[in-house]
Amino acid sequence: MPSTVTRARKERHQATALVSRHGVPATALRRTGRTARTLVRLGIKYRKRLAPLYATAGLTGLGGVLAASRGGVPTAAVLSAAGAAALAWRLRCRAARKRAATTRVLLWYLATTGGAAALLLTMALMSPLTPPVPGLTLLWFLAVAGPYWWRRRIRPVVPLAGGEYEQVWAERIAEPGKALPGSRLTEVQDLVNGYGWKATIELPAGDLTAEQAIGAAARIASAYRVSLASVVIERMPDGAEDHAALTVYTVNPLQHIHPWPGPHVLDEATGVAQIGVYADGDPVRYRFWRAGSGPVHDLISGDTDSGKSRLLDLLLATEKHAPLIHSWVIDPQGGQSLPDWQDDVGWFADSVEEGLLLLMAAVRVMYQRSAVLSRTAWTDEHGNRRRGFKGFTPGLLGMPLLSITIDEAHAVLRNPVAVLLCQEIAKMGRKCGVRLRLVTQMPLLDQLGNSHVLRAQVAAGNVIVLRTSMAISGLVAFQSAFPVYPHKLPREWGDGSSTSGLGYALGPSARPSVMRTLFLADPLRWARSGTETLLEQAAVTAAGKPFATWRQRREERWQMPVDAPAFALETESETGGLSLPQTPAGQEAAARAGTCKQAVLDHLTSLDGAYAYTGAIARALDLPLQTASSALARLAAEGAVTKVARGTWVIQHSAREAAEDETVSAA
Predict the structure, then answer these.
(1) 458-497 b/e (C-beta count within 10 Å ≥ 16 → b)
(2) Longest CA pairwise span in the chain (Å)
(3) Structural Rg of the chain based on CA atoms
(4) pTM over 0.90
(5) In the prediction, which pLDDT does 102 show?
(6) Collapsed DSSP state (helix, strand, coil) of residue 311
(7) What is the reported pLDDT for 403?
(8) Tell me, what's the pLDDT at 489?
């Protein structure tokens, strides 16, 4: 290998020296080569713009070849006849496709083709460089290039006048081979605010459907020379498949900021609030709960600077001032994503570990409420005595809606315990008044703990997708409910201002139309004002000590040095992957979690051979249900306990005697 490299270097030096002896430095040759390559690339890139120049150069070269040959003049005559035949064939094809050339274009075709034939014969007779041939060539170039470049100039977008909308539709959209062949535009009228116009699309029955019209939005935007965000195609109110509603905005009203008017946007009778506006001024509705059915989960996604944090500020402000909602928040970035809410919600978990404690408490609250709601007796409107509530409405039996927001959800859902807890809440929370709001940059499965169940449950509620960078985001989040393109939304408006808040929403408002969220100017003001709705006492008891002492734990963490990690990374442990805080209180909890298997064994020993249920053991020891179940499974594998039935356990006789002997020995 070294000999080969050395030989190549010698040959390169010899070549350089040889070139230098001829008076042309190698560097000059390299520069010339780079310049030539650049010119070739530019020529290929702008080949359509430079077509007249290429045609003139080709005609001149061909004329020179014919002038130097013996039969140049007859050959030029044959080539001219072939060019005339090619032009006639092209005009015939255009007429067959019902795209016949206008009179002006036809005259240009004839003049350029006839001029090229005459010029070629002249060059064959005389020579391309013999006067007056160069002057005639220049005149032919100007005659060809002038109209060609003028027709392809960059034109400013001029709004169409009334009556031209149908003409553009017929020529660019409804022709055979176009976006919607055979369709027709009817009932065209300008919008009242002057921002654009609307019409009805009549589709050929049996050939096209409203879904195909919605999918053709990009081609319709191209036909009318507007952006994709300015074209809205929706189904008709009656659901007819042979019609669709079209709205085209020449001036996008969403460029203007729409301020949030206040918490009164929430209708407490229906659980619906306004969170944004569509381009036509209609409100974007968002559902917190459905009366008699229960709360609705959320899935919110969008890129950085797309407006997710401002939307969360708006939702949390609405919850803070609603007398029927109690909010918990998980922000794994230490509170940096939602800094204004760290002290003004029921529980603010600023790490993954604290978030796990919050989710465990939420599951305990959920099961406690389920037990109460399932056995409470009540009388319906017909006077019938009934027992148990099938659904949930905030305020039922004094229970407020518990709303859990998980920002940067992908960081939390990397922990398998968090995934299991969120799945439990997503599946059962609707009947117990607990809702889940997952916020992530990408709604992909790996960002949601690789849980199909979790994504399906949250995507069945409110789905909001702000501007994204990947085309798959809208398809995955909306489960193909309607074709939208959040990755094509602009990052900035024409004046350089941000398009933050621009996106699509699926919920009570299920329109495939671009919307923009309302703007909350001062989140801290709304966080500090209002009265926080408290949980009922039974739920507080079920949430336990972690809920009562979360502020104390946070103060202890804040007293630690900044350069020391407040929490360890997620590691495997006795709690199934849960890594607990390493604070004085956290060390005690970690020690208890590390010996949870022994604690379960001691509890079963104290029952003196009586049966015990998994849930009862978890409540007695203040352990998460999943942790108690895992400990019992390990004890059963070791032969210390026996599984009598599903969720029912009893201690083995030998294990009870060993535990008693150990207690006596210790005494």
Answers:
(1) bbebbbbbbbbeeeebbbbbbeeebbbbbebbeeeeeeee
(2) 126
(3) 37
(4) no
(5) 73
(6) helix
(7) 96
(8) 83
Q: Are 351 and 359 in contact (CB under 8 A)?
A: no
Decide: 487 and 475 in contact? Cβ < 8 Å. Answer: no
Q: d(Cα 459, Cα 453) in Å, to the nearest integer?
A: 10
Domains and CATH numbers, the chain: 1-35 (no CATH), 46-151 (no CATH), 164-251 (3.30.70), 263-377+386-538 (3.40.50.300), 595-667 (1.10.10.10)
Please report, for residues 74, 118, 547, 614, the alpha-carbon distance to residue 125 in angstroms, rounded to integers and kept in the order given: 10, 11, 100, 105
Which helix H or strand E contains 329, and what residues bound it? Answer: strand 325-330
517 close to 312: Cβ distance less than 8 angstroms: no
Distances (CA, A) of 550 to 95, 349, 546, 557, 568: 79, 8, 6, 11, 18
Q: Is residue 305 left, alpha or beta, with left meaning phi > 0 and alpha meaning psi from -120 to 50?
A: left
The three-state secondary structure class of 44 is helix
pLDDT of 373 reads 92
Q: Where on the phi/psi map is residue 113: left (φ > 0), alpha (ψ -120 to 50), or beta? A: alpha
CB 146 within 8 A of CB 138: no
Return the SS3 of 531: coil
The answer to whether residues 470 and 424 touch, using CB atoms and an 8 Å cutoff, is no
Quickly list DSSP for 470-530: -THHHHHHTTTSS---GGGS-SB-TTS-B-TTEEEEESSS--SS-EEE-B-S-HHHHHHSS
DSSP string over 590-659:
HHHHHTHHHHHHHHHHHTTT--EEHHHHHHHHT--HHHHHHHHHHHHHTTSEEEEETTEEEE-HHHHHHH
**589, containing H or E segment:** helix 584-594
Location of structure tokens 């500090």: 528
Tokens of 230: 């300015």
Cβ 259 vs Cβ 207: under 8 Å: no
What pLDDT does residue 591 have?
39
Q: Is 246 helix (H, G, I), strand (E, B) or coil?
A: strand
At residue 322, the pLDDT reads 92
| Below-50 pLDDT ranges, the chain | 1-2, 5, 15-22, 157-158, 564-594, 654-667
| CA torsion angle 35 36 42 45 (round to 10) | -140
CA pseudo-torsion sign 526, 527, 528, 529: positive
Strand-strand pairing, 184-190 and 196-202: antiparallel
Range 155-191 burial, b when 16+ CB lie within 10 A, else e: eeeeebeeeebbebbeeebbbeebbbeebbbeebeeb
Cα angle 260, 530, 298 (rounded to 5 degrees) comes to 55
User: Among positive and negative, which fits the CA dihedral 460, 466, 470, 475?
Assistant: positive
* DSSP structure string for 203-241: PPTTT--HHHHHHTHHHHHHHTT--GGGEEEE--TT--T
Type of residue numbered 568: A
Sheet with 641-645: list strands edge to edge: 612-613, 648-651, 641-645
Angle of CA points 459, 460, 465, to nearest 5° = 40
Tokens standing for residue 215: 């999918």
Distance CA 69, CA 348 (A): 90
Q: What would the DSSP string read from start to end of 277-288?
A: EETTSPEEEEES
CB 551 within 8 A of CB 313: no
